[in-house]
């Protein structure tokens, strides 16, 4: 059970890092502010590495949808919480929909991630 959960935990951490790099990108002012630019570079790299590790086990389409959905939801949520974006109940409802859809991809029965990890094709080895 834990072994099958690790790729999902890595994917979740990568999605959180996506929100961090997206926020840092906005704060970098076109890469002219050194600290946000450095945070962007480090977290973008780690986020992509985590996504790459996760897709060894989780199908690419599912992993990418979850990564983008969670990352986008966290980015918008953080922007609303910090006052960068105006709060809106409608935005919260739509963000909740994104998160629900991403969670739904995890709980769907069947698919390559349901029982055994996907084996790499000869071209991927």
Short description, anyone?
The chain is mainly α and 125 residues long. It is 70% helix and 0% strand.
The counted number of beta strands is 0
Instruction: Provide the gyration radius in Å.
Output: 16 Å
Helix content: over 70%
Distance between the termini: 26 Å
State the assembly state of the protein chains: single chain
Given as residue ranges, the uncertain stretches (5+ residues, pLDDT < 50) are 111-122
Please state roughly what percent of the residues sit in beta strands, choosing from under 5%, 5-15%, 15-25%, 25-35%, 35-45% or over 45%. under 5%
Number of helical regions: 4
**Biggest sheet character:** none
Mean pLDDT: 87
Helix-and-strand structural type: mainly alpha
């Amino acid at each position: 059970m834990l072994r099958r959960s690790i790729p999902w935990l890595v994917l979740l951490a990568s999605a959180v890092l996506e929100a961090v790099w997206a926020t840092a990108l906005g704060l970098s002012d076109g890469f002219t502010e050194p600290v946000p630019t450095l945070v962007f570079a480090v977290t973008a790299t780690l986020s992509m590495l985590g996504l790459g590790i996760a897709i060894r086990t989780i199908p690419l389409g599912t992993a990418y949808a979850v990564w983008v959905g969670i990352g986008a939801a966290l980015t918008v949520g953080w922007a609303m919480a910090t006052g960068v974006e105006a709060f809106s109940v409608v935005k919260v409802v739509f963000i909740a929909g994104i998160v629900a859809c991403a969670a739904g991809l995890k709980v769907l029965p069947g698919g390559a991630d349901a029982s055994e990890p996907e084996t790499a094709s000869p071209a991927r080895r």
